[in-house]
Amino acid sequence: MTIHLRFFRRVAGLLAGGLLLAGTVSAQSTNSGQRDVLREITDVVGLKPRFQLRATSEVQNAAAVVYGGQRYLLYNPQFVAAVNRAGRTDWAGISILAHEMGHHLNGHTLRAGGSNPTDELEADEFSGFVLRKMGASLAQAQAGMAVVSDEQASPTHPGRQTRLTAIGQGWQRASQQITASTRTAAPSAEPALMASQPAPVRQVAARTVAPTSVVGKITFRAKPEVDFYVTSRLSVVRLDRDGQSAEVVGRLARSESLSYPYVLIDGQQRRLYISRMGEIYDPNGRQVAVLTDPV
Ligand SMILES: [Zn+2]
Predict the structure, then answer these.
(1) 240-273: pLDDT as tens digits
(2) 27, 108, 277, 283: which could form a disulfide with 181 (CB 3.0–4.6 Å)?
(3) 104 with 43, same domain?
(4) In a domain, 192, yes or no
């Protein structure tokens, strides 16, 4: 059994139109008392739920379609119930809906053509990300795909293990974001100051950042014109324009994360997370700077 049949995407408009006009689609997006899964999913990715969820027996399983400029998630409630039973968790059905929503949010439904392995893996990765944010374990996030995917790859769909791995990658990515944001007490809700003045920790003479002691350079996206350097003692130093004096504005510390081996801590104890590739993220997972070799 495959979810998201190529057929549905190819004739998406026709299908959804026919279903809607024929009135075979349930008007209620969810039964009363049921979780508003759609809203929960869009909440965790910070989007408004601009989707219509439609339960219908006209689709065999589930599909993401666009009709009349409106995005629909169609699902067969019997299929979702069967997936939940087979996966032994309601997370299974939720992951199927998250997968279909991943097709919409990644723009797959805006393109012509049917399912392809790349799109499927993006949607799978998205579902893993979403389910971790919603509180599912990795096993729960993978339960749905474990029961509905084919073991062997096809021209349109990757094989089961590849898909479970993609879900795992999304799940891990969300997990790292959550860990990063909870390591700090709580992200500050303070708006940005008009004139940002990083608190100087102490003043150091320029000679302490002689070229031999500089091991890296940090460039912030918001301040690309200002050079920050990392010294061999892991201090983060901002060099004056004339190069005569330097100011220590933070430091790097080792972390226990394999993916984010260093944390940048500024004078106000705010933390940024540095990936192995040198990408620097804020606690919300936004990349704000890059660490490169000093040039
Ligand atoms: Zn799909």
Answers:
(1) 666 556 677 787 777 767 677 778 888 777 788 8
(2) 283
(3) yes
(4) no
